[in-house]
Amino acid sequence: MVTNKKTVFILVLAVMMLLTACSSNNGNNGSNNANAGNSNATNAPSESDKPVTIQLHTFGNEANYNWEKTIAAFEEEYPLIKVNVNVLSEKGDSQEALQKLDLAASSNEDMDVIMFSDPASYAQRVGLGMVAPMDEYIAKDGFDVTEDYKVDTTLNDHVYALPGKFNPWYVLLNKTQLDAAGLAVPTDWTWDDFTSYAKQLTTGEGASKHYGTYFHGPQNGGWMEFMKLALGNQPDNSEFLNADGTMNFDSPNFRKSLELRVQMEKEDKSATPYTDVMSQKLHYRNQFFSQSASMIMIGSWMNTELGGTEQFPLDFEVAVAPIPKNNEGDEGGYTMVTTDYVSIAQSSKHKDAAYTFVRWYTTKGQIAQGKNIPAWNGVSDSEMASIIDIILSGTQHPEKVDKESLINTLANAKSSKIIPPVTYQSEVYKVINEEYEKLIYDKQDIDQTIAALDERVQKIIDANQ
Q1: Fewest beta carbons within 10 Å, which of 88, 123, 243, 334?
Q2: Which structural domains are found in the chain, ordered by start?
């Protein structure tokens, strides 16, 4: 186990030197060749040897993405390509960033590389013709997206983005409160275990009530992971729509997801009420770090904050557990996975240079950035521990994080079979959100909710045939 920053730096430097050697460009780092991370890569289509400046539009802010350090590493390797980072939301709000991105596109701003935070946004902008396919570049580089990366970004038989980070979802645990309740940190558990933990961790009444868990979504058609608790932990058929475009609301696991939400809020009263989440505009970071809730299901982008930050200081012990299974005998580790979809703008005047950056950023760039576990398969599980040490060292109290539970959860996490999102995915999400609110506000039961979803979503599907 790595025990000091100097050792961590040496290990990571060795990894990066190895990766650089594997992606050798015959010594010509000044060209626009895009062979990062692939020893058998061929040259990408080349524009010229003249310097170019490309525009990167991203929702990721400096604090969470280390852009200054990352871009410096890229420009050192590719001195003829300069990258201007356009941060669309200083607070890292992906919805705000998306609105500004659409405005920039409609205003014909120069765009070369675009980042999306979720598959629905990615698919919708593909449908609008905002991003360019990368198939030609990938073919010349000689790699397969499904082999090189943990996330398949293929959409309509074309690749319009490469994945950056690999953020499997997990359960954040207030280990101090678990210890006080005599509860062990789970390494393999079911939703029945989760609901039992939540009940035991719920204390108090009224304004001073402490909840066992907090669910941050759905909200305004976003945070839809919270609508598939028992659906997203499956190897197959883990989405609201099937691969053939038909609906999946008749899945017992979707019904169970609704039942869990109703049970924990209405019956067990162990989950923060949805009315409070919406009316008080609660946020998962505040709820966890203020110790208002003991367990929070969230994505592993939180790795960079687990040890506490200046904005959210930590004064308790933290542990991590995998997303619960539905049944004891199920294979564990399957979870919702989020990634950054890094694309080339269709309007880009420097597509070769843009692709060079996209390929580098989604491979060696993830290591240089030092903020997330990469979706790139070029990073082994053994190297993951060193990356995690670097990530945690950027927090205030890395010693308060149960690193063993974190490594175990991340190492065993795996994505469900990817079902490419449809271009009208956001419309489907909005309807699911609306019908869920009717359920949780006691305006309809689960049967009525599923029936309404079947009817409304089918109309959306029919309208987009």
Answers
A1: 243
A2: 5-166+339-379 (3.40.190.10), 168-336+408-463 (3.40.190.10)
127 DSSP β-pair partners: none
CA angle 301, 306, 311 (to 5 degrees): 95
Q: How many CB atoms lie within 10 A of CB 402?
A: 17
The distance in angstroms from the start CA to the end CA of the chain is 54
0.85 cut: is pTM over it? no
SS3 351: helix
Give 3-state DSSP helix, strand, coil % of the chain, rounded to 5.
45, 15, 40
- Whether the pLDDT of residue 203 is over 70: the answer is yes
Q: Looking at 326-447, which runs of residues are DSSP E strands?
A: 334-335, 337-338, 341-345, 414-415
CB 409 within 8 A of CB 323: no
Cβ count near 168 (within 10 Å): 23
If we measure between CA atoms, which residue out of 363, 365, 384 comes closest to residue 373? 384
**Beta-ladder partners of 171:** 297, 321
* 106: number of Cβ within 10 Å: 8
The letter for the amino acid at 45 is P
Handedness of CA 164, 169, 170, 171 (dihedral sign): positive
- Token readout for 420 is 């490419």
Residues in Cβ contact with 174 at an 8 Å cutoff, skipping those fewer than 6 apart = 288, 291, 294, 295, 316, 317, 318
pLDDT tens column, 287-321? 999 999 999 999 998 998 999 999 999 999 999 99
Contacts for 386 with CB less than 8 Å, ≥ 6 apart: 2, 8, 11, 12, 15
Nearest to 74 by CA among 355, 368, 375: 368
For residue 417, give the amino acid letter: K
Determine the pLDDT at residue 4.
Answer: 41
The count of residues in the chain is: 465
8-state DSSP, 344 = E
Buried b (16+ CB within 10 A) or exposed e, 111-147: bbbbbbbbbbbbbbbbbeebbbbbeebbebbebebee
